[in-house]
Design a protein that fits this description.
605 residues; alpha/beta; Beta-Lactamase; Rossmann fold; 4 domains; nine-stranded mixed β-sheet; six-stranded antiparallel β-sheet; 32 strands; 29% helix; elongated; DNA binding
């Protein structure tokens, strides 16, 4: 009922919960009390709008009041929305409310001191406020009785659900229970002052829990780490984890042994799996290439989706409705089941009007065998290759439409794609090499000059074809620095089972040795025949003469006698060619002297 003095709506319900197989045998009765400080929110509304709200018969269930410039004010309730009069909202009405609330933060939210109400602003392109959403904040004591046994475990809990379903209310009550009843050190990271109210003094609804405010929303991840390092919490409470930095900070906190309780954007676990920013909260998803034997054992493609790491949150709760929650007590198993095309068993907890908690388990579709219902769940999985197709002896064909998975949600289509990787028809022309190998070899260059590769292939007449399509490549030729710094290249090559050959630098000797190694021609014990045209730029007599000088010095003096040799002075362009030739012999050389007498000195190995 509505208290005429405080205008607070409070409801007390005594109830007991029947013994349940999934909960303690006797669950204590609870008292549900709702405190909303509604009068303080009504005080910021213009007089004509406030009078209309106070006269509404469903005042106690008010959700929010919306005021947009030039439009009729609107009051929203759980199942309906009504206009408050027939006079549009003016700038004076908006300014009246703005003057009576706190400062709007970087996320355009403000509050009323020592209340849980939230006022959100809509701005035009110049930054002027043209709309307000005045949302009622309520502290509902006893709202988490359905999951109290999970809170007691000390495991990290993630709450999921659509906006307005009560995630923040449950978060606030969990913080109070952990702080007051379990006497734990609880720190709330309150980005928008929505959990503990506006102002420096937190709302009594959080009990003994402490609150850390965040200056700007983008700094939430820093405050999360600061809370752990400075205040020794046993529990960290976070609302609206929405960025990759916040997800990483949450994992860091969980790895330090601190219990996490938080909310995230998304209705179901499937939403998080498909969200690359937040997928780490449930362990992260990666593409894994299976061996031939393992792929045949699973009856799947060689590339499948798997969980990358243990989940940050061990328990997930999907708040489908205010009194109907789906609980995943083992998030790791749930994610694994979803990625393998199996429908997980759902534990559904509901609370009726009398406060009675009921727990049921929703199994996947059951099979009917001989007129009897089998207890084994029927898991409809995407069709997978079998027979000759699984052994790789036949060309892949598209599955028949009638055999495909009937339900076509986005998530199931993603799983389909993980089983059926497109295999493009190859136009490669193969001829057997001297030892029976397939020639030519298709090389995909990454960070290596195509002109240098073409020059080596043309002069040495190598069975190499340069391709621009990585799907058709037999091997990747890349600079080692690129391979080291580009993890995406390694992931793609690993997924396609294409080997990567790295070279130290983009020079003719390095490319020559790499191509010979790819073809199996690079035997370090057999001296290589050096074609000087490989190292010449245009093949002029001066270039060939300088390269011949360097070759004779290496083969007749440096290698046989182990003595260093100095060559004749040359131009910088020709000296560079000589350096490359010396590197071809796996020797070291330096340039010294002043121009125009600068020359090469070759050192023994």
């Amino acid at each position: 009922m509505l208290d005429p003095k405080t205008n607070n709506f409070s409801q007390q319900t005594n109830s007991s919960v029947a013994p349940l197989s999934l909960m303690p045998e006797t669950f204590p009765s609870h008292r549900m009390q709702i405190t909303d400080d509604l009068n303080k929110l009504l005080e910021i509304l213009p007089e004509k709008i406030r009078a209309k709200v106070e006269q509404h018969p469903k005042l106690e269930s008010l959700v929010e009041v919306v005021m947009d410039l030039g439009r009729l004010p609107e009051a929203r309730f759980p199942n309906e929305a009504v206009y408050l009069g027939d006079v549009p909202v003016s700038k004076e009405d908006l300014q009246y409310s703005i003057d009576r609330v706190g400062t709007f933060s970087g996320d355009n939210r403000a509050g009323i001191e020592r209340t849980l109400h939230r006022i959100s602003a809509i701005r035009n392109r110049t930054g002027e406020i043209v709309g307000l959403t005045c949302r009622v904040g309520r502290a509902i004591l006893g709202t988490i009785e359905a999951i109290r046994d999970l809170v007691e475990t000390g495991k990290s809990i993630l709450l999921l659900g659509r906006p307005g379903v009560g995630k923040t209310t449950a978060l606030r009550e969990i913080a109070r229970v952990l702080a007051d009843e379990f006497h734990k050190r609880v720190v709330i990271i309150d980005t928008s002052n929505e959990i503990a109210g506006d102002g420096d003094i937190p709302h009594p609804a959080i009990g003994r829990a402490r609150r850390m405010q965040v200056a700007r929303p983008e700094l939430q991840h820093q405050v999360m780490i600061e809370a752990v390092e400075n205040h020794m919490p046993e529990v960290i409470v976070i609302d609206e984890i929405g960025t990759e930095l916040e997800a990483m900070a949450a994992r860091t906190i969980a790895e330090r042994g601190v219990q996490l309780v938080g909310t995230a954007h998304g209705n179901r676990i499937e939403n998080l799996i498909k969200n690359p920013t937040l997928s780490d909260l449930v362990g992260g998803i990666q593409a894994v290439t299976l061996g031939d034997e393992e792929a045949r054992r699973r009856g799947s493609q060689k590339t499948v989706l798997e969980r990358k790491a243990p989940p940050t949150f061990e328990i997930a709760i999907e708040m489908l409705e205010r009194q109907r929650w789906v609980v995943h007590e083992d998030v790791a198993n749930t994610v694994d089941d979803l990625l393998r095309g199996r429908e997980p068993t759902l534990q559904v907890r509901t609370i009726d009007e009398n406060g009675k908690v009921t727990i049921t388990e929703e199994h996947p579709q059951l099979q009917t065998v001989g007129g009897l219902v089998s207890s084994a769940p029927t898991v409809v999985a995407p069709p997978r290759p079998s027979g000759w197709r699984a052994s790789g002896r036949m060309t892949p064909v598209s599955p028949l439409e009638g055999e495909r998975y009937s339900a076509k949600t986005d998530f199931e289509q993603m799983l389909d794609r993980s089983w059926y990787q497109p295999e493009k028809s190859s136009e490669k022309i193969r001829t057997p090499g001297p030892n029976g190998e397939d020639w030519p070899v298709y090389v995909y260059p990454y960070g290596v000059g195509r002109s240098q590769i073409e020059q080596v292939v043309e002069i040495l007449n190598l069975p190499i074809v340069i391709t621009k399509d990585m799907d058709n490549a037999d091997v990747v030729l890349a600079l080692r620095s690129h391979v080291k710094n580009h993890s995406k290249l390694r992931q793609i090559a690993r997924a396609r089972q294409i080997p990567i050959h790295g070279i130290k630098s983009n020079t003719i000797p390095q490319i020559t040795r790499a191509l010979r190694r790819i073809l199996g021609m690079d035997d370090p014990n057999i001296p290589e025949t050096t074609d000087l045209h490989l190292f010449a730029s245009n093949g002029s007599d001066d270039e060939i003469e300088a390269l011949e000088e360097a070759r004779l010095a290496v083969e007749q003096i440096v290698i046989p006698t182990g003595q260093p040799v100095e060559l004749l002075p040359r131009s910088p362009r020709i000296r560079k060619m000589q350096h490359e030739l010396v590197e071809h012999y796996r020797l070291h050389s330096d340039s010294f002297g002043e121009e125009p007498n600068r020359r090469l000195r070759i050192y023994p190995a």
